[in-house]
Amino acid sequence: MAKLPSKREETLGGYIVHGVPFPVTTDPESLAFLKKMAPIQIEQPYSITYLHSYGQDSPWFAGLANKKLLASQDPQTGYTYANPRAADMFTGNETNWIDITERSAKIHAFTVCHFGSEEFLPETPFVLALVEIEGVNTLLLTRLMGVDPMEANLDWIDMPVKPSFLRNSKLKPTDVYFSPVE
Amino acid sequence: MRPVYVISGGVSKFAKARPDKTFQAIIKEAYDYAIQDIGLDFPTFTRLADGSVASYFSDHFSRQLMAAIMAQDYLGLCPKPSHRVEGGGATGGICFQEAWKSVASGHMDICVAYGFETMSHVETWKGNEFIALASDISVDYPVGGFYSGYYAMMVTRHMKEFGTTVEQLAHVSVKNHMNAYHNPYAQKRNRLSIQDVRNAPMVAWPLTRLDICVMSDGAAASILVSEEGLHKLEASGAKIARPLVKVTGIGRGTDAMRMADRPHMDYDYFMDNYATEQEKNSEDTRSYYRKLWDHGTRYPGVHSFRAGRTAGNMAYKHAGINDPINDLDFVELHDAYTSSEIQTYEDMGLCRYGEGGPFAASGKAFMPGIDYNLDLKDEPACAVNPSGGLIACGHPVGATGLMQAVFATWQLQGSIRKHFGDDALQVNNARRGAIHSHAGTGTYVSISVMEREG
Fold this sequence. Notes:
Chain A is mostly beta strands and 182 residues long.
């Protein structure tokens, strides 16, 4: 028989309380008793929308929206970053964009997230992977699809993978994801 | 630089939630304890203190900007100088080193380093989200921001690269939870088995809930002084424990926030720039590393923390340490994950890169005299996380590195029984120890070496 949760999930929320227990009189004995009271805890909602700029990295996201995976390359040394990076960390040179969409790739490391941050909880279990791409010196963090998250196996490392792109771009790095080469 | 002594410290109760007090009052628990431990009253010490450094990681958790000045105010330290430091999980360790700088430079004679975090104010999953915002919000966080996931990817690479096993990881959890059984400050004091760790709910494969530290509310404070500061305090009636505890080594390192961007260096570059002196001087180790590189290993990749190695090499040079496992009697290191303890054994030169897994299961990092109910082949050599570490003590981020400093001070003073009520965790004849504080995936790492004088 499947093991079911023995505890109810804890959530915030509940009744709105009007009136807080407090001594009827503020005589010394009653005031001294206040130090024995439990703390008052209140809910403070907080919501904000940021206007985030991708700045100099914007072309990388524009590439994903157009089903192209770009990389940043030092024009002098050829050192290549899978992530957008406008300046090389060794030479300080301004990098150039190159297209790496068609290059072969394989899994370098991975995990299956069974829990996660609040934003991604509905998507669990999901697979995160760092991908090695041919001729690229650094890795790319991505979602790995097409594998069973309940059958995680170290043999997934070195597995050849290929990129796919969302048809409807969200202008996020998840516009590209990888899956095993069939 | 002048000699700097750590004369006292205090740690608040760490708990999943401390709604009984605001953050200022939790810090004061630790601050009051530190003052009382040198036999002074609050007004006398506060009058003599020259200033402070404050430590907390995230403004998001408290939804309070400039929380440090509110603590400074509550502790009665206004208008003395102070500033807040922030460096992710290494915040507390950096705070300790900034206090050291304040004293070593001659700017202050008596400096208080205090830190806190109150992580219970949001639900766990929102807390995970806040922590994940300490990853690149353009290209990393949106992919599925979750720190346990980031570390788990490092684990799978370490396992693939070096053959590390989940059972070796679990040895760290069993050790640290068992050590914490004797530490009244610890949040989780459990006797566990390897199977308990592996059977716990999976969080990020292959890390289970018992491979990962928990979120906490808590605070810690440490008092650092110069010789002049020592004399000022004693002239005012302070009873300062002898032998004194001196800070003898300071090191820090950094690495790229996006771990995907970290380099994969060749053998020669590693040997020239990152190998410890001990590794460079050992023909056997050079040959061992040559084989690793021939097999495809590159450094640091995502399996190693070059920030930790950089910090260690710097601190060891400062302290004159050449053989870490024999020159250090104990290490309190940042074990937010069992895997990061294993990776840190290697970074700190307690064993060679690639040997962290077998080292974890060997017994060398365990405490003598404690029954772990494990079959360990080696005798204890250098106790790692005798306090129970972050996994068992809890990890209120801004307090953690300072908690390590306090526990290390008590180890070197030989006063564990006095503070824990039990000397099971007292490292026998502890003369030199190190504390290691680490920020997200190894971005900032600080290592400080402390020694008993005389």
